[in-house]
Amino acid sequence: MNDNIDYQKIEEMVEGDEEFRKQLLEAIILAIEELKDVYLGALENEDLEALRQARHKIKPTLSLFGLKRMTKVLYGGKKLVMEEGFQESSLYKHKEELLDAAEALLNDLKTFH
Questions:
Q1: What number of other Cβ atoms are within 10 A of residue 5's Cβ?
Q2: Rounded to an integer, what is the distance from CA 57 to the centroid of its chain?
Q3: Who is most buried in 26, 53, 94, 95, counting CB within 10 A?
């Protein structure tokens, strides 16, 4: 079982349509790249509302395609910021986890693509 993405969900959705698979994977890649940029920027700017919006916007993608690792990282970050605020010492590890999860997912998607 892949914690980055549930490929079975993609296959069920595309029903063998290669063009749709390509478009779907491209859309997921763009969503993850946007999330990474917006989320990291919100952390840098200590912007709680931008963090909330970034999580909210990606939420359907997380559940629809079984992005378990990314979900865990994002909601761990939510808890961290709510409990400890924007302390750089706390956020460093979280930023690294987010970047690692995003890169692993993007690599998987590009390989599957």
A1: 23
A2: 10
A3: 94
10-19 per-position pLDDT tens digit: 999 999 999 9
State the pLDDT confidence band at 29, using cuts at 50, 70 and 90: very high
**Within a 10 A sphere around the Cβ of 38, how many other Cβ atoms?**
18
**Angle of CA points 53, 44, 76, to nearest 5°:** 60
DSSP 34: H
Report the SS3 class of residue 75.
Answer: helix
What the block records as the tokens of 19 is 């063009």
Give first-to-last CA distance, the chain, whole Å: 18
Question: CA 31, 37, 40, 41: dihedral to nearest 10 degrees?
Answer: -130
Q: 94-109: string of b/e by CB count within 10 Å (b at 16+)?
A: bbebbeebbebbbeeb
